[in-house]
Amino acid sequence: MAIVLSVSGSPSAASRTNRLLRHLDRRLTEQGHEVIPLDVRTLPAEALLGADFGHPAVVEAGELFARADGVVVGTPVYKASYSGVLKALLDLLPQYALTGKTVLPLATGGTTAHVLAIDYALRPVLNSMGAAHVVQGWFTLDRDITVHEDGTLTVAPAAGEALAQVVDQFSAALNPVPALAAAS
User: Fold this and answer.
1) Are 11 and 83 contacting, i.e. CB atoms less than 8 angstroms apart?
2) DSSP of 86-131, one letter per residue?
3) Residue 5 phi/psi, 5° resolution?
4) Which of 91, 116, 143, 157 has the most CB within a 10 Å radius?
5) 3-class secondary-structure state, position 62
6) How far is it, in rounded angstroms, from Cα 106 to Cα 17?
7) What distance in Å separates the CA atoms of residue 105 and residue 83, rounded to the nearest whole number?
8) Alpha-carbon torsion angle 61, 36, 40, 166, nearest 10
């Protein structure tokens, strides 16, 4: 199967975005993919903000992107756009770091007013970085994600079904059925 880099663009370890991504990582792993989580917030702030392209953590992040067949990019929506910490990382990657990759954009936010952030803020950046295929993304309302005291996550049924569908479409795009096999 494929190697999937799961990138959390949330600046908070306890964020719904981060927990939702790790929840979806399990689904991809169950489908046979190798999933590598990357929490951008764990990269040194001085490297991100100082645009230190040669910092070992930035170089390592770039290598993770290079190894991946597919990339899931998750972000909370702030001021109708993706997070600044995600922007800082994307700015440090090579211009065509997503060439040949299948990408799934995901976002979380407090209001449906931010639903277009995926298509008008995040998707253009992903396309400009050479993504071979940016599959249909998904925006999940914060109120549809419940984090319990024990750290477990519950997603509202309708949102959970929609997320499962976009993750499954992403997974299928990573493993296209050859034309001859599809015809038999």
Assistant:
1) yes
2) HHHHHHHS-TTTTBT-EEEEEEEESSGGGTTHIIIIIHHHHHHTTB
3) -95, 120
4) 116
5) helix
6) 9
7) 13
8) 120
pTM score over 0.90: yes
> How many other CB atoms are there within 10 angstroms of residue 54's CB atom?
8
Q: How many Cβ atoms sit within 10 Å of the Cβ of residue 117? A: 23
The count of other CB atoms within 10 Å of the CB of residue 138 is 23
- The bridge status of strand 145-147 relative to strand 3-8 is unpaired
Rounded distance, CA 153 to CA 148, Å?
6
> Which residue, chain included where needed, has tokens 């071979």?
132
10: phi then psi, degrees, rounded to nearest 5 = -85, 140
